[in-house]
Amino acid sequence: MWRSPVSRLLRIGVISSIAHRTPARGYGPWEQVASTLTEGLVALGHEVTLFATGDSVTTARLHAEAPHGYEEDRSIDAKAYEALHIAAAFEQAAEFDVMSNQFDFLPLSYSRLVTTPVVTTIHGFSSERILPVYRAYDDVAHYVAISDADRHPDLTYAATIHHGIQTDAFTFRPEAGEYLLFLGRIHPDKGTHLAIEVARRAGLPLVIAGIVHDHAYFKQMVEPYLGEPDVSYVGAVEPIERDRLLGGALALLHLIGFAEPFGLSVVESLATGTPVITFPLGSMPELVRHGTTGFLVKDVDDAVAAVGRVSLLRRLDCRDDVAARFTAARMVAAYAELFTRIADGGPSSVSRSSSRGTSTKANRTAPSLTP
Amino acid sequence: MWRSPVSRLLRIGVISSIAHRTPARGYGPWEQVASTLTEGLVALGHEVTLFATGDSVTTARLHAEAPHGYEEDRSIDAKAYEALHIAAAFEQAAEFDVMSNQFDFLPLSYSRLVTTPVVTTIHGFSSERILPVYRAYDDVAHYVAISDADRHPDLTYAATIHHGIQTDAFTFRPEAGEYLLFLGRIHPDKGTHLAIEVARRAGLPLVIAGIVHDHAYFKQMVEPYLGEPDVSYVGAVEPIERDRLLGGALALLHLIGFAEPFGLSVVESLATGTPVITFPLGSMPELVRHGTTGFLVKDVDDAVAAVGRVSLLRRLDCRDDVAARFTAARMVAAYAELFTRIADGGPSSVSRSSSRGTSTKANRTAPSLTP
Description:
Two copies of one chain form a homodimer. By secondary structure, the first copy, chain A, is α/β, with parallel strands linked by helices. In chain A, strands 3-2-1-4-5-6-7 form a seven-stranded parallel β-sheet, sandwiched between helices. In chain A, strands 10-9-8-11-12-13 form a six-stranded parallel β-sheet, sandwiched between helices. In chain A, helix 5 links the parallel strand 8 and strand 9. In chain A, helix 1 packs across helix 12, helix 5 crosses helix 10 and helix 8 packs across helix 11. The longest helix of chain A is centred in the last third of the chain and has 17 residues. Chain A is globular and about 60 Å long. In chain A, about 50% of the residues are buried. Chains A and B meet through helix 2, helix 3 and helix 4 of A and helix 2, helix 3 and helix 4 of B.
């Protein structure tokens, strides 16, 4: 069993996103991960301040500038409140042994102005055009990749730490269901149209759940099939319905069209015992064990064939793999170990020079914390 | 004559906008003002570092993160390069006696992390939704209004300093021209459609110059009139053409529909001797002396009548008023005096507490520097 290596308690500031509440009510994976981490660190006894929206729910001390997420309350100017939110965290930096940035690149630009080390979890690169910021702070930043696949060759990482989930929020279902499931944003990247094609060719019902991210795509590629009795769209789903939908499925169709940095829904599906059929893109080969917890397929034909073989997989193997590799406890322990290491010595040996690209990084060869 | 009160030389960091080059090639009033200030401070002997795009032209030391303005080079991510740009300035804060922020609200959010005082020129409020940031930093910020009209009642100002222009870049023309001029962004706020209406009713030719900011508006409200022999659109104009167009006009029609914080084109027009017909909105009553350098009109009827009376004004009075009130030298001297005052004592007596809304401001009763 995994034992926490934490030898002392830390004062930690966690900077969440303010697009949504922390944890998000519905869609909001960044806020979900920030919440899981925060609550786990508090449970370990650390003194945590969570910087998030005012309506966030946490056992940590909450500091809020924005009353609500800017995606949920259009009276809130995203740029203005991001500035207030990040600044508030850095203005309190002296009160923390370490800060955990779960908020993209903007906090990096404040990080040289304080002496507290900042550990930045890179939840993905929205565009190559934001890389200049990550490169500019590579010498002082402590980057955490959320999968080995998402590591950018130009950057230096302190660790890869896979996301973890609260497994008790997902009910293991030993019997396979009779429908296929698409769960995620309705967007070409997520392959909703491919899930429809695979389900129709496999002759099985498909349930589609998630927010509509790309309305034109939904209208053109999804809506025309909703008249068929075997294709249904149930909209965005809250946690209890999400658990029920995942657990009741034969397989999750995760036929993404991009190198996804991590897939929370993939791990959640496995936690209910439901195998995952996906492409070997991005983090997928790290999350799905081909032939054991799902299938990494090469195209739609291959996906249709995989649907036929999915009942040969043992659902308990899926659950067991999550228990071994993707629990919140494991994620929190990995972060706690990293934070302790960095608070204890990392930062003092890192040059905080402001002349970019010239200083060297202390822990360039730090080992990955992921087994 | 105005004499500079500067008693010692300062090390000053000027943070310009990176939307455009500094100074802008065409449209770009913020960059224009930052340039005028920077070059003037260098001429007074101050040691100035200008934070601006890499293609900027200056006699100061130039520090650039973005090679070009993000409005001019779409490969540049505005948010990423704004972060790099502002951070670079604050990472060098210890090298400056004072910093001049000509860049909107974002730099405020870094200002409590350094001890160097930051003087923020508010070039206007793009939206009420950005006010929370200005309010949050009111206790430590030194705000400069660009007109008394633009002072927000919630904020504390160190001074009002009107923009100044290089008067020798504008040629005084003693004889009135025979056309009316619209010069500015083509946008409903700027009243291009009202200028057309007034010119047609006055029976005079209208020349329209400026970038098209609102394309639907241009198509619907401007383009239909361009077939008429007396209405012409000449596009955006560079400095020499701008001087020629302004000086050759009978009057500038500046029939704005919003409380404009300042109007550089108004002052430039006056510098060539061309009177201005405008509404008494925003800064206009501060810029135009009704009955002497132009007319503050109450509606379109009144504007048409004013066109009939404009030849009664003395063009030399327009030029003289600019020489007295709107020169670059006067603006630069006012900033230099303010910077010296703040560098010498202002900041040390200001509490830099991070608990918002509780500290008091040292120079809350500082007098306006504008006569």
